[in-house]
Amino acid sequence: MPRLRKSTVLPKPRVRAKVADADATRKKILKHLVSKAVQRNTERTTVILTPCQEQAWAQLQGNDNIFLTGAAGTGKSFLLGKYLEGKPSALYPVVASTGVSAILVGGRTFHSFFGIGIMEGGAEMAARRACENKRVVTRLRRARGVVIDEISMLPGEALRAADRVARVARGIDAPWGGLQVIAVGDFAQLPPVSDGNENKDWAFMSEVWDESNFSSALLSTCVRTKEPEFLRILNFVREGVVNEEVTDFLNARFLPPTLGFDGTRLFPHRATAEAHNRRKLDELPGLPQIFETAYKGREQSVTQLRRNCPVPESLHLKKSALVMIRKNDVSGKMRYVNGSLGTLRHIEPDCLTIALFTGETVEIEKTAFALLDGNGNEVAIAVNFPVNLAWASTIHKSQGATLDRLMVDLSSLWEQGQAYVALSRVRSAAGLFIERWSPRSIIAEQQVMEYYRRMGVSNNDL
Hints:
This protein is of the alpha/beta class.
């Protein structure tokens, strides 16, 4: 499947069937990754690593396969961007488990890069087809390493197929055909997709994972929040523990939604979130201004882009609407990040003025999101303001975002990690409010907890 990548601001949408200048494309990708990692800014401020980041950074300088992991908010994406700075994307491609997660790191999808598609016919059949694709073989032979982001959502079967493809394409009968693999993520967050109630096909349970002999690089210092009590609660929820401390904390954060909450509500289902946003927008005076997302490209590619793009096909906005910015500040000043909330103060055809909850006011221009094929060629683009209505979102879409104020309903969740992902989005406990909750919604996968215990990780380490 092609990948989604944020591009620079384009006044007029333009699509290229092929990338004429590969070096220019590489520079755009690197610019996004570096800006996400806060590696460049106009003042050239030096970013200080935490002790655990320093240790992980040292591990990344070697040639071992690395599993970069840690709880939410410990700086995995930050360190990933630092590692990739200056590395050509053709030599060190970034791949992600889904199109949505690929957007967040400026990479392509795992399935697209390795040529395994939707895995029709199983791992062996998918691998066989991929090995017959000359483009797949060429890019695997060219690469020196590969970064796999959001590894928790990638099933073991996909790893088996990709490993087989890499071995055959590179002509080396060794794990990943001799490629260095950097796997990034937290298995305690969202799991791989599975049908019904069958056992989940965790990547760490695959024989390929064992053969890869990953050296674990654990990030244990949370940089999203510095509140010890809140961090302790998050760690309990991460492990599925509902004790007296967790109960008292969640009860203390109770707030009925009728009391005029000013922030983002997280729901497990998209339809519920979209309905809430429409209802809140209708409550504002006046008619909405509608900005249609402009698409260019082949019909099939545009269809894929519509499905995975972080902005809707039709963006309805009104003055005073609550919005969420869906990109990081590429100026280097880091005035906002993916997930920053604010109120619309002024709407112009090519510029939005947003008063952020941080107290700063910013102007946001239209941005192009590009869909690229496995070789890095743009096959479709979408242009619109990089914002969403933010009265509500889904837990799944909130992954990777940092929110200022959050209300969540934890009464009827069904998947492991959902409660943890939701609660860990917010910067401070003061910005967290609970509509209702049930102990049954706080779920942890025991296989995951056992895996981390084998790594030597305790609750105190996260």
